[in-house]
Design brief:
The complex is a heterotetramer of chains A (about 1050), B (about 120), C (about 230) and D (about 80). Chain A is mainly alpha-helical and about 1050 residues long. Chain A is built from 39 helices and 7 strands. Among the domains of chain A are: about 90 residues; about 270 residues, no CATH class. The longest helix of chain A has about 30 residues. In chain C, helix 6 packs antiparallel against helix 7 and helix 7 runs parallel beside helix 9. The chains are: A mainly alpha (about 1050), B mainly alpha (about 120), C mainly alpha (about 230), D mainly alpha (about 80).
């Protein structure tokens, strides 16, 4: 093994040596620089692997005297890892910066090399004054590297940085001086034994040391200088500061944390959390890419600072949590900064340029998801463990703030991702990519992916995760160049095979929802054959969503469940954003999902208190805060079922999605929320706050959702939006049914779930087929299509009969059971609303069939053809099932009833053939079908007979009075179809909820804007912030 | 004596910071910073002082055997030496930055250099 | 004014922190154990430098010194590329001639100062002074020379080579310490000699020479860079 | 004893006065010289504190070289101003 000291001798020696070369040869100097850093990295790596496999830590004694008499360096596990990261970043960053460094001459290479060297020493040294010296080296190095760009902004940033770090270093020096005076040594280990924190002045000395280190980590709000550097410097340097330098300083904080008492640690935690929330809050209002990355970096560092402060509570998991979050930050932030250097545009909206090179977009997405903490990236694991441990140790406020901060971070990161995927890019210059700039980005993406999978394999809790679906997704990426029909077939076969393998293990609810997710998935995928070309990137994303959905079914532990939940969210997000005008809708979908996921995470965390297992059934034996756990999880799941208040993402997302994606995200995806609720309710049972039954609130929410969703549906002009809102309403029925916690309620809810899957797939495909043909979603631009698209007409007709819940089709059965359940339960007020909602449903059903298919055919639609075969095929397959279930209702209801019997033995239906009997009446689906069919035949015959002599009027056989209305659509009968009702009831659907979220969002933005005004760009203000920060923290501690 | 010099040092530290915080001219800010630095050095040297001690140099007045009782603590002196040189480096760098800033905007007023903010 | 009062409040806060420190400062009546170790007879004799500060600077805390030298090196490099201008921009402009007194004085003083600097460097292990101080004195001599003769062509190349060679040698000496003595920067790679004589204290004089050369050339470089831009107008 | 304390007090007072001059004097050269004076006075103080090494360094670097660099930069800025 090579002594760790040679990390320093090699790099520093090379730096001095390059000076000799001077102008001789820039290429040789650059090569030497990279070789030196690579050699240093190799030394760190060899120590890291050696120590991991049991070797002892390496100690370096300088000057031939043992510590504390001379300066010593330590190479332990942590040091080895961090120096490895630093040298890795140094190497990749060096490659990235090659051109700039060569352009500005040999001096810059020297500075770069010395900077990397100093970070290594900072990590390894055990002497606080030596730490001070090399921190100064690093600061000066950064100040020198900042001006690699010649801009005036860079110079300003460098100057501010110098003044700020100068002041901080001065405070550090005072701390070091008095630490030396009181402890009689400068060696960290000896200072620790000297226990100088037992008296006030001694602890002030340590305080000054620690606060300076914290200030170097750029805590909110004393960090304007740091953010300015991120903005002003070359992004390649930003990457170094954010990844390498910050990692080193964090390690220093960790190293020195042994010196301080627990009360200090709490302050460190508080500062970290404040920084995390504060800088993410300010990031929201930011439109400059580098500055935004600065805020995000500082936020992440804040989180890690807090983790260092929380070390005593994290126990054995501390390493895993800290390292996984650090590594995600490290790779993702470095990669993002480097990408920013490639894009060269600072406005976030200009990142649409990335689309010119799709692989850059993929890299960008990887970094964003790694930062937010999605699987399979390491931060996912880290965040999970962190939240679990925080809940365990009753740090609820910290837990909440971490989730809030993460959410704020999600807002701007996903908005940014959305810009890059969807923003207009018409006027943007072409993107040029040099090999030396792209290789580091690719490697960091691979780094974050690889480390995520590595962490997954070494961690006990993640060991049971199934990666086979993910491998399948990877395969689909590989064959992405193939045409649609190949990939579609592969996908359907893949899902089919997977269903076949897991089918024997499915039972009960898992069977029902497994079939909805997988069989339903196959069915909707069939529609995909109508597409031509390659449909780039579509299939991996679809499979990602289905992998998540099936993961929910298969999950045995809360961790697996959450893992699957996040996969599903990620996949569905990308599916939704593929839609036409879906940038904002995808963002709001993601934000609601993210918020929901965090609530679920918090809920699982609280549920886990006092339990050793992570199995899902710990929900059945929650030790403390059971109602709170229930509420958190329920709201979390309700973001997916789009219950009232949480629904605003849905209409846009579903309406703008592609033809065959709409049924996936509407008919299938929403059921994930229902499945979650069922799981929750099954395990946790009834919950009361005091004497108030939470389920009663759920019933109200379900009822209001139903009314509101249906009314909104009735007032839409856009056919797909109408369907989207009708989903909201229908999911309201399901929630309403579930809230009864009775046999009939659940029977209704579960059967309605199945029914909703069927008719919503049917209708979205049918309407999607029409939209595909007539190129508009506005209903008043359609009309008379019955003759052109008769097959589609039949589908829609059947679909709305099911929706409306009128006999004879299966929707009625569900409603009938629901009404029986109401009578049994006696919650009449919300039930009245549900009845009312049922009436409203007629309105939109009527509108859908009437304005689209009946009336006059539009001139431009004369040549319209029937929908493509591949869209009709799944519709008619579903229709067959609907007819079967309608004619033989017990084929659906009886198995569900049998499944519910052990859970709710009371109040089950009695079956006599196709006759169902409840306590309040009976219903025979088959007979009703015959009767209704009979009536229909009679009425139809009567009408035909009466009208047989009517004269047909040609469609355009009318005269105009030469008036041209300013808004042509206002003359169409289908426009504002329900104007009278809207007048009467419109106030009910006034966009209160949308307004609420809008103003919430505006409020957050306004706060963000207010807060960031403290960074007025003046170096004196920044110096003042630093000093004020010290004084305030001092006052808090002492 | 060491108290007096330490208090002087701290006062210089505060005065220097006051200069950094209040002066509008960049050169003045740097002057403030160098006063701050000098103050720090004085504090450090004061810490080393041993009552009645002599300089930590072995010569005719201090024999090798007596050093342990007679000389003042050499460690802070070594630290101050380092700190002084670092201070020079930082100050020189700040001045060169000031020069560049001046070349950019033809002014030394600190308020004119807040292009980066928010 | 409001702003200044805020600033004043914060500085008063710092004053409170500092006065707590001063309040608990009792001076020293005896050395602490670390300093006692350094001033013990056997350890003085082991390092063999009469100037104990030099012993600490070069030996015990030699690693700090390496960092310190690096800082100057870094600063010189930054200033070097920061003030660098394209050669085409360089237009010599008439510079005011220096006064005769200055020129004459510099002719006498510069060699004397350089000699004194060298003296300070090589006696660094015996008397107060050493590489830094000597280097600074040499650099001051260069400044004086430049002031006296603004047209003097400042030989960057020479200083750069000196700077680099002395830097590399410093690191190599450190490595030699690992190979031939107890560890990195152990100066006992050369015989200790007798306390108080010129040839003593192991490699300290040698290291100090390198430090002196390095510091001198770095500082001269900084000044030289400023001078060059001074003339380029 | 009296000398031991009075001289440091005097030095301290002078330094603080010099600091005020350095911060508040309108003319930059005067301010720079005042700052250099502080260093020079400090190096005298170091002699009293039995720190000849530090005194030497402070005198040569703190009050010598850094003052020179200040003047160099100031001069440079003046010239830039003149060419405007």
């Amino acid at each position: 093994m090579i002594s760790p000291i040679h990390i320093i001798t090699l790099t520093l020696g090379t730096a001095f040596f390059i000076g000799l070369l001077k102008k001789l040869n820039l290429n040789i100097s650059a090569l030497l620089m990279l070789v030196a850093i690579a050699a240093a990295g190799t030394i760190s790596a060899s120590w890291f692997t050696a120590i991991l496999s049991g070797a002892a830590n390496a100690e370096v004694f300088t000057a031939g005297f043992n510590p504390p008499y001379s300066i010593n360096l330590l190479m332990g596990k942590g040091e080895a890892l961090i120096t490895l990261l630093i040298n890795l970043a140094g190497f990749l960053g060096g490659v990235y910066l090659l051109k700039s460094l060569k352009e500005r001459g040999i001096y810059t290479m020297i500075i770069y090399l010395v900077f990397i060297m100093s970070l290594n020493v900072i990590v390894m040294t055990r002497d606080i004054f030596n730490l001070f010296v090399f921190m100064e080296v690093a600061s000066i190095g950064i100040a020198g590297l900042v001006i690699l760009d010649k801009s005036s902004k860079a110079t300003q940033a460098g100057f501010k940085y110098l003044i700020a770090t100068g002041v901080i270093a001065g405070i550090l020096l005072i701390g070091i001086a008095f630490t030396y005076y009181f402890a009689g040594t400068l060696n960290i280990d000896v200072i620790q034994q000297a226990s100088i924190i037992n008296f006030k002045a001694g602890s002030i000395a340590v305080f000054l040391v620690i606060i300076s280190i914290i200030l170097e980590l750029k805590p909110f709000p004393a960090n304007g200088w740091g953010i300015d550097v991120y903005e002003g410097a070359n992004p390649g340097i930003g990457a170094m500061i954010s990844a390498a330098s910050a990692s080193a300083m964090l390690f220093v904080l960790y190293k020195l944390a042994v010196l301080v008492p627990e009360s200090f640690l709490q302050i460190i935690t508080a500062i970290g959390i404040l920084t995390f929330v504060g800088s993410n809050l300010m990031g929201i209002k930011q439109s400059n890419a580098n500055r935004l990355l600065g805020y995000s970096s500082i936020g992440q560092i804040g989180l890690l600072t807090a983790i260092v402060g929380l070390k005593p509570f994290l126990g054995a998991q501390f390493e895993l949590i800290a390292v996984s979050i650090l590594i995600s930050h490290f790779f993702a932030k470095a990669g993002l900064f480097w990408l920013s250097g490639i894009v060269k545009k600072q406005n976030l909206k200009d990142w649409a340029m990335l689309r010119q090179k799709p692989y850059l977009l993929v890299l960008f997405g990887i970094f964003i998801f790694a930062l937010i903490g999605f699987p399979p990236f390491p931060s996912f694991l880290g965040k999970w463990e962190l939240i679990m441990k925080l809940a365990h140790s009753h740090h609820f406020y910290i837990l909440a703030f971490i989730l809030i901060g993460s959410f704020l971070e999600g807002i701007y990161l996903f908005r940014w991702l959305g810009f890059s995927i969807k923003m207009e890019d018409a006027n943007l210059p072409p993107l040029t990519v040099h090999w030396n700039k792209i290789i580091p980005v690719v490697l960091s993406a691979l780094g974050v992916l690889g480390s995520g999978i590595y962490f997954g394999t070494i961690t006990e809790i993640a060991a049971s995760l199934k990666y086979i679906p993910l491998l399948f997704i990877a395969l689909l990426y590989v064959i992405d160049f193939l045409p649609v029909y190949v990939k579609n077939t592969v996908s359907i076969a893949g899902i089919g095979y997977y269903l076949y393998t897991i089918y024997p293990d499915l039972e009960g609810f898992k069977l029902i929802f497994g079939l909805i997710f997988l069989a339903g998935g196959m069915l909707t995928l069939v529609a995909g054959y109508f597409k031509t070309g390659t449909r780039k990137g579509f299939y991996p994303l679809v499979m990602l969503m289905f992998a998540g959905l099936v993961g929910l079914i298969e999950a045995h532990t809360t961790f697996e469940f959450f893992f699957a939940w996040e996969l599903m969210t990620a996949g569905s997000y990308f599916l939704i954003i593929r839609g036409k005008k879906s940038m904002t809708h995808a963002l709001s979908y993601m934000l609601f999902s993210l918020a929901g996921a965090y609530l679920i995470l918090a809920g699982f965390g609280l549920a886990h208190i006092g339990q050793s297992s992570y199995a899902l059934d710990i929900l059945a034996s929650v030790q403390s805060f059971a109602p709170l756990v229930f509420i958190l999880l329920a709201i979390g799941f309700m973001t997916k079922t789009a219950s009232v208040g949480l629904h605003i993402w849905l209409p846009g997302a579903h309406a703008e999605a592609e033809t065959d994606v709409s049924p996936m995200v509407s008919a299938i995806l929403l059921k994930a929320g229902v499945f979650g609720l069922i799981l929750l309710m099954l395990n946790m049972g009834s919950q009361f706050i005091g004497s108030f039954n939470i389920y009663y609130a759920l019933a109200w929410i379900g009822a209001i959702t139903a009314v509101m969703g249906n009314m909104m549906a009735a007032f839409q002009e856009d056919a797909k939006r109408l369907l989207a809102y009708s989903s909201v309403g229908f999911l309201g029925y399901i929630l309403f049914g579930l809230s009864f916690m009775s046999h009939l309620g659940w029977l209704a809810a579960v059967s309605l779930s199945v029914v909703h899957f069927m008719f919503k797939t049917l209708l979205f495909l049918a309407i999607g087929g029409i939209v595909y043909r007539v190129k508009t979603k506005e209903m008043y631009k359609m009309g008379g299509l019955i003759k052109k698209m008769p097959f589609t007409f039949i589908s829609v007709l059947m679909g709305i009969i099911v929706i409306a819940g009128v006999p004879p089709l299966t929707g009625f059965g569900g409603k009938w059971i629901l009404y029986n359940a109401v009578l049994e339960k006696g919650w009449f007020f919300p039930s009245a609303l549900v009845f009312f909602a049922g009436i409203v449903a007629f309105l939109y059903c009527f509108r859908l069939i009437h304005t689209v298919f009946l009336g006059q055919l539009k001139d431009e639609h004369r040549e319209v053809k029937e929908a493509p075969f591949w869209l009709l095929l799944p519709q008619y397959m579903i229709l067959m099932v609907i007819m079967l279930f309608s004619a033989l209702p017990n084929s659906l209801l009886k198995p569900i009833g049998a499944m519910l019997a052990p859970i709710f033995p009371e109040g089950a239906l009695e079956w006599q053939g196709q006759l169902a009997k409840s306590g309040f009446g009976y219903w025979n689906g088959q007979v009703i079908m015959y009767i209704v069919g009979g009536i229909f035949v009679v009425v139809f015959a009567w009408l035909w007979y009466m009208n047989r002599n009517a004269q047909k009027v040609k469609q355009f056989n009318i005269g105009y009075s030469a008036e041209r209305p300013s808004l042509p659509e206002t003359t169409h009968f289908a426009y504002n179809f329900f104007a009278p009702y809207k007048k009467a009831l419109g106030f009910l659907v006034s966009p209160l909820i949308t307004n609420f979220w809008d103003s919430a969002s505006e409020g957050v933005h306004a706060i963000s804007d207010k807060v960031r005004r403290i960074y007025n760009g003046n170096v004196q203000t920044y110096a003042f912030h630093i000093l004020a920060f010290i004084v305030v923290v001092y006052l808090i501690i002492f | 004596m060491e108290y007096i010099s330490m208090i002087t040092g701290f006062l210089l530290v505060l005065l220097g910071l006051w200069g950094v915080l209040t002066q509008k001219n960049i050169i003045k800010i740097i002057i403030g910073f160098s006063i701050f630095d000098t103050g720090l050095h004085i504090v450090l040297v004061s810490i080393a002082y041993l009552r009645g001690g002599t300089a930590p140099v072995i010569d005719k007045a201090v024999k090798v055997t007596e050093a342990i009782e007679k000389v003042v603590d050499p460690v802070p002196h070594a630290l101050v030496l380092t700190a002084i040189v670092i201070g020079l480096g930082v100050t020189a760098l700040m001045l060169v930055y000031a020069l560049k800033l001046y070349q950019n905007k033809k002014t030394l007023e600190v308020q004119s250099f807040n292009d980066l903010k928010w | 004014m409001v702003r200044n009062s805020f600033r004043l409040i914060i500085l008063v806060g710092l004053l409170v922190i500092f006065s707590t420190l001063v309040w608990s400062f009792n001076g020293n009546n005896e050395l602490n154990s670390l300093a006692q170790f350094y001033t013990q007879q056997e350890n003085i004799e082991a390092v063999n430098a009469a100037n104990l500060v030099s012993a600490v600077v070069v030996t015990y805390r030699g690693f700090d010194t390496l960092g310190e030298v690096t800082i100057l090196f870094l600063t010189a490099s930054i200033i070097g590329f920061f003030l660098k201008k394209k050669l085409s921009d360089t237009q010599r402009k008439e510079v005011r001639e220096s006064s005769d007194i200055l020129v004459t004085a510099s002719k006498i003083l510069v060699p004397v100062m350089i000699l004194f600097g060298v003296y300070v460097i090589i006696n660094g292990h015996l008397t107060p002074g050493g590489g830094f101080q000597g280097g600074a004195i040499i650099a001051s001599a260069m400044v004086l020379a430049l002031l006296a003769n603004p047209h003097m062509k400042f030989n960057h190349q020479l200083f750069n080579v000196l700077e680099s060679i002395s830097g590399v040698s410093f690191v190599l000496m450190g490595i030699a310490g690992i190979v031939y003595a107890g560890g990195f920067l152990d100066n006992r790679i050369l015989p200790g000699g007798e306390v108080g004589t010129l040839i003593s204290a192991g490699a300290i004089p040698l290291i100090y020479i390198f430090i002196g050369l390095k510091v001198g050339s770095e500082l001269s470089n900084i000044v030289g860079n400023l001078q060059v831009t001074q003339n380029e107008q | 004893m009296i000398i031991n304390n009075t001289i440091p007090v005097l030095l301290g007072l002078m330094m603080i006065m010099a600091a005020f001059v350095a911060i508040y004097h309108k003319k930059l050269p005067v301010a720079i010289i005042a700052a250099g004076t502080i260093s020079l006075l400090a190096s005298i103080l170091y002699l009293f504190l039995a720190a000849p090494d530090v005194a030497m360094t402070e005198a040569s670097i703190g009050s010598g070289l850094s003052t020179i660099i200040f003047f160099y930069v100031l001069n440079k800025i003046r010239k830039e101003n003149g060419t405007q």
